[in-house]
Structure formats: C-alpha cells, structure tokens
Fold this sequence. Notes:
Shape: globular
Order of helices and strands: EHEHEHEEHEHHEEHHEHHHH
Radius of gyration: 20 Å
CATH class of the largest domain: Alpha Beta
Distance between the termini: 45 Å
Number of strands: 9
Number of helices: 12
Amino acid sequence: MLVSPRVFVVIVNYSGARWLRPCLDTLLKTSYVNFSVIVVDNASTDNSREIITEHYSQITLLAEKQNLGFSAGNNIGIRYALACQADYVVLLNPDTKVKPNWLTALIDVAEKEPDVGILGGVQLRYDDDEWNSWTSAVLSSRQKDLLTDSARCPAWLEMEWVEGACFAIKRTVLEKVGLFDAIYFSFYEELDYCRRARYHGFRTALVTGCRLHHFRGGVWQADEQRRRMRDYQCDKSQFIYSLTAPDKSLLGNLRNYFVTLAVKAKEALLALRCRHFFALALMQFSVWRNGAALWRKWRADRLRLSGYGLS
Length: 311
C-alpha cells in the first residue's frame, strides 16, 4: 500500500486569537490524513498560546520570544518540518478557513507535476463563496470563467506567484532554493520566493480544486497602530523587491525604485497624509542600511538567472 506524502502545515501567528479557532477547527477537518500542524507564535500579546495549549493538544506550538515577522517565523516552522522528514510544507495564514479537500487537491496536483514546485489555492471571501480581492485581482476574466465551469476547468493554472496565505512548497524546492529571505519582515516574501524558484526551473501553480476562505490582513487590522505598521512594511518590502529584481540591471532597479518612491510620495502629499509621507522618508534609511545585503541578493539571483539561460 502506497503511503501518502508527509505534509506539515505551518501557521505563523501574532496576536490573532480572534482568527485561530475558526482556522484550526476547519483545518482539523481536512480529509487528507498524513499531515501535522505547527503554529509558530511570534510573541503574541493576547491569549493565542492558551487557545492552542488548552484546546489543540495535537498541534505543535513553537513559542517565540519576539515578533520575528512572517519570513523568519515561517523559516522556523519550515526547519522543524524538514527535520521531521516533511515531503511538503504548506504555509497557511491564521485568518483563513479551509475546505475539507483543500490539501488533497494540492498534493494530487503536486505529485502529478514534477516541475511544479510551489502551489496555492483559490481564495474566497471570509464569509461567503465569492472571490476575495486577491483572486479577483490576479486572475483574468477568462480564468475566473474557467473556475466556474466544471466541464472546462483545469486542475491547475500556471502563475508567476501565489499568495503566502496558502503556499505549498515541495521539499525538493526547499532543498534547492532555500528558505524565505528574512530581509522581508512581511509582504512580498512570497513573490520573492516564487521568483527565486522560477530561476531554479520550478513552476508555480494555482490549484483550482483547493478552495479556502481568507479575510486578508485580518491580524493587521486589529488597531490603527497595526494598520500603520502594515502600510509601512508593505511599502518597505515593495522597495526591496524592486531593488533586487535580477532580470534588470542595477541602474534599471534604481530607476524603478526612484519612480516608485516619487509616486508614493506624491500620492501621500496630495492626500494630505503627512504621517505617511514622513514614514516614507524615514523608511529609506531602513532600506539603504541593508544596501550591501540587497546588492548581494541581487547578484546571487542574477547569477542563478543567467545559469538557467533566462537573462
């Protein structure tokens, strides 16, 4: 009898107690059998840890002493999963609710497609079955029509990237590409990882049979301070992502960086968002403080790109 691949689901949580129970309750109803769940708690200030220890003894809790962010937090869970001989690691956001067959659909496609290394699911709004904002934005009208037509719907669609809210990675990809780049605290890390995997020859798939509800940014919307931090981290990560694009020259990346900065600054000034404007200005010190690391990252990815004849 064939043994199904060993899957570890990794959830990085920071003060997301409101979302944890619906997420974990639906996750534990998953029809796929051979899987385990790891929650990496990034020093939550609410009762997240108590919820897990009191109600979910079958889940592994990795309690951190500080908020490490999405990339570094996931890396801790990934390392743990690989040490436990995981064949697949699936990253899942705490503000999600999965359908029972979500994982079976992911693994079925992954096992049939050897050059597909990263897989994601079709995201629905948190409280109904309509497309959420990510699905609506990244799919064309034709692709969305295919998703609603069972007779024509393929098992998967090729994508440049899938969102980290549901992000399955084969062990072979992790061994060749490595972990997430912790230079990203949050946001754009999954785009960066898909880009790096592509330069190793792996494809990225959106699995049409994998469906999940995702609130999107639920943990970030707890209060005004956290919403400002979300905007800050998103902008900062966008600058890092554009500065390290390996398919462009350093001068090309710098040109895109300054254009993006000018557009964002102009928008902030026109909207009289003075706080955001000054945050953008201060952010540049944080970005360029890591200038040497950004250059090394750009160079390493560019050499890899050239090695695959893609430059």
